[in-house]
């Protein structure tokens, strides 16, 4: 009985050791999977961050180009204004009024641009947050572009159909008028 107890205790220890080894192996496997998932999420987040950085850079370049064009336009307006002021004294009041209006319009445009820039910055920040949470912003953008392209194609087809229907109606009207004229001649 004592020997049987010893053997049973030995078997129990072996079973426990096996179970512990299995649990450790399972834990290692789960940890490896978790690390792999964490790395994948980090990679996806980096892709999204890079995409948004590129997008911000493109938008900044576009805003800079728009600002440069606006400056060139303002310079051209100023040059024309000087020429007009030299043209005749009686035009001076009109030129001053035009300059005032151009300045006010420039200020309005500048305020509009600043407002748009603020809204754009808020929108970009929101997009970055949404992208970090959902991690599929790029796919969504692609689908939106595809939908827009399909919608544009659809609108072009409808426009073409409208034009063809208009042409057909015009042709029918011309035929009707020709027949009416012909029947008048025959009468």
Task: Characterize this entry briefly.
The protein has 187 residues and is mostly helical. The chain is 96% helix and 0% strand.
Supply database-style keywords.
2 domains; about 95% helix; elongated; about 190 residues
Count all strands and give the number: 0
Distance between the termini: 134 Å
Instruction: Summarize the biggest pleated sheet.
Output: none
- Summed up, the domain count is 2
Question: In terms of structural class, how would the helical and strand content be classed?
Answer: mainly alpha
Order of helices and strands: HHH
- What are the segments in which pLDDT stays under 50 over at least 5 consecutive residues? none
Describe what this molecule looks like in 3D.
This protein has 187 residues and is mostly helical. The protein folds into two domains: 2-135; 136-187. The protein has helices spanning 2-87, 92-134, 137-186. Helix 1 packs antiparallel against helix 2 (92-134). 1% of the residues are buried. The model has no long low-confidence stretch (mean pLDDT 90).
Which helices and strands appear, and what pairs or packs with what?
Blueprint: H1 2-87, H2 92-134, H3 137-186
Helix pairs in contact: 1-2
